[in-house]
Amino acid sequence: MNTRSVAAQGRGQARRAANSTAVEAGARAGFGARGIIYVLVGALALQIAFSGGGGQQADRGGAIAEISEKPFGQIALWLLGIGLVGMALWRLSEALFGQAGPDGDKPSKRAMAAGRFVFYGFAAYSVLSFAAGESGSGGGSSDQQSQDITAKVLGWPGGQWIVGIGGIAIACAGIWIAVRAIMRKYHKHLKMTEMSQKVRRALDISGVFGGTARGAVFATAGGFAVAAAVQHDPGQSKGMDDTLRSFTETPVGPWLLVVIAIGLVAFGVFSWFNARYRKV
């Protein structure tokens, strides 16, 4: 057997492993875990809108802290972290072998999958670190982390440009997320034929509303990063918590945050639909 055939056989085995039942189960668990986090973040944001929220954080750290305070919270955190590991591994398989669908092998889609692998890998690490007792990891403030990173980058040569371009990229990503949600691009990734009419209606309500709200949060956070670059002030950079709180400073007061918070809960529900109907 020559080297080329051995390599081809190896790639075939790796692809089969990427398409295995275990990877599919990991992906579905990951969507379930993502849904839990977004539902909790939305609920925390609602508390902030109606009562100021006190010292609670409306971000992943706040959601993790909220879970840890419940009965069997530590067990739930371990399960949540393992679910996110499953999501990260599924995204890695997409980056290496392509996504499901006719255009799944496109380099752009593989690159996006690689970026999502890094994101979910970090999210899984932060949750599991918190579950293991390192409270400074998963439960840390997204606002402080954002400002620390911004301050460090601003100190680099050309740091203002880097932060500014990064902020524009995040803002554009937010707009892209919202537009794709409004256009219901997610349909092509789901097993629509297996859904009843009621399920489709619920899917579209949660997908359009939730995706638009999520996109608005990303776009706003990107705008703050651009402001930090222009003013050379890392304090202008905001994580998810401060970004959500900024919606209360609009002319409509806390009601915009209420809408965004409900949208984030809707995106969590949409993630659960993905856990059931996603083509993996």
Automatic annotation (TrEMBL):
InterPro entries per UniProt: DUF1206
Q: Does the keyword Protein biosynthesis apply?
A: no
Question: Taking every annotated instance into account, which residue ranges of this chain make up the domain DUF1206?
Answer: 29-97, 113-184, 209-278
Question: What are the TM regions of this chain, as residue ranges?
Answer: 36-55, 75-92, 113-132, 161-182, 203-232, 252-273
Keywords noted in UniProt: Membrane, Transmembrane, Transmembrane helix
| Protein's UniProt keywords contain Membrane | yes
Q: What is this protein called?
A: DUF1206 domain-containing protein
This chain's source organism reads Streptomyces bacillaris
